Every structure is written in structure tokens, then in C-alpha cells.
Task: structure prediction
Amino acid sequence: MRDTANRSRLVAARRTLEPPVASICVALALLVLVCFTAPLMAAPLRIYIVTDLEGASGVHKFAQTREPGHPLGEKAKEYLMGDIAAVVRGLRETGVDDIVVLDGHGSQAFVPHLMEPGAKYITGKPRPGPLTGLDASFAGMIQLGAHAMMGTPDGVLCHTQSSRSENRYWYNGVESGELAQCAALAGHFGIPTIMVTGDEATCREAQKFFGSGCVTVAVKRGIAREAAELYPFEETRPALREGARRAVAAIQHCQPYKLALPIQAKKEYLVFDGPSGQPRRVTKEGTIQSALKLLDF
Result:
């Protein structure tokens, strides 16, 4: 009888102690979870957008991109701002709260009163570095309004750096355009290119260099260098918005584009210095020690 009573008291005592112990264990587990996840939850997701004008919706001839102040160019800038707005909206809808948009067009192409809220916009020259403000804190880069490399048969307004001198570049034996150049700069910081927009040829080039994980959105189809099948804005803008949402989800599937160092580089370009006025093609070769120096070659 006494043994039975003792066992009963022990069982009762154990039951009395178990709930507090369980509660303490749960509380400790939650504390550890909060401590480890709070920094990740607090850190904003940063996305860097570099823009160009040639690959924007509605743009298909050099009169829209080369001459500052040209009426066609001023209208083309508005087209670009509409594309930017669609992408910024898509990013914001996924919870991205830190967006930097860089004006990557040579003569600059931003229209301040058309800037979509929710992003920071960088324009004007001179400025430090080719991709001002880019660092390892960004989760991904978007190349918006991009174009195919020089010599692409169906590339609308295709060129690499200069359409007038018809520059062509090779890095470690692979011909590369501005898509690869920008991506390699981002790759230096460990940042993947997660989305590319432009014509069909540009999207094809992006898939070749960055793989299928990179989201691409075509806003037109090239027929020749200054001829294209244009897609209506009512179609391209929703596609860009949706593409931006998909790009955020694709970050985990995209790898930074990196070039093996040192980079063996070759550049071909036209020089107009002869008495006849006819251009001659010049070749330059050398070694680049850092991807940050690509555009200095």
C-alpha cells in the first residue's frame, strides 16, 4: 500500500513539473529561432537595375537614341520610363523595398517627372564607376532595355559600347556584348543577373550567357538593325511587371556571371583617321586583371 502511494505521489509530481519544463523548452527554441532569423528578416532585399534605351518598348531606330533633344528621342525616353515603372511595380509587389535604378544610356535617358515611386534613380555624368553604387549588398541585378551585341543579324539597334565605331569585344576567346560586360561587373561582387529585357535577340543572348534561370522579357522582335515587329505597350508593360515578380523568385536559381582571371581581352573597332574618310578596323589585345576594368580596355 505504501509503495503504491509513493508511486502515485511521484507520478503526480512528475506531471506537475512537466508542463513548465516543456514550456521552457519551447520558449528557448523560439528564442533561438528569433535570434537567428531576425537579422535575415530585418535585412532589406536590394535589387539593382541598370537601364539602356535601345531595348525599351517602342524603340527601333537610332534617331530615337543618339541625338540629345531630338523629338523622337524625347518620346523614346518616355517609353523607357514606362518600362521602368512596370518593373519597379512588380518588384515592390513581391516585397522588395530597396531598388536602385541606374541610367545606363550614354547620353542619359531619365525623365524625372515620370519616375515611379519606390526606387532611387541615378543619372547624370561624370560619375564614379560604370555601375555607380553597386556593391555586394544587392541580391540581384536587372538589365532593362538592353540590346544585343554588335553584329547580331536580328538585333534591333545592336552594338557594343559604340554603334558608330562598331566596337566588338572578346573575353577569354568568347565574343561578348554589353549584357556580359554588365553581368561580369556585377559578378565581381557575387551578384547574379536575374532578369533581362529587350528584343528577342537580346533575350536569346541573355539565356546563352546566364542560363535558363535568368528571367527574360521580350518587348519586340528584330527584323533588321533598324526594323522591328513592335509589341503593344498594353502587352509589354504587364509582361515586364510579371517578369519582375518572377525574377525575385528566380534569385536562388541564378549564378553570378564571372570571368576567369586574368582576362584575355581583344577589341576591334573602326578608326576614321585616313585622308579618304574611309574607316579602318583596328585590333587591340591585352590582359585585364579585374572585371572592374573591362570597360577601361
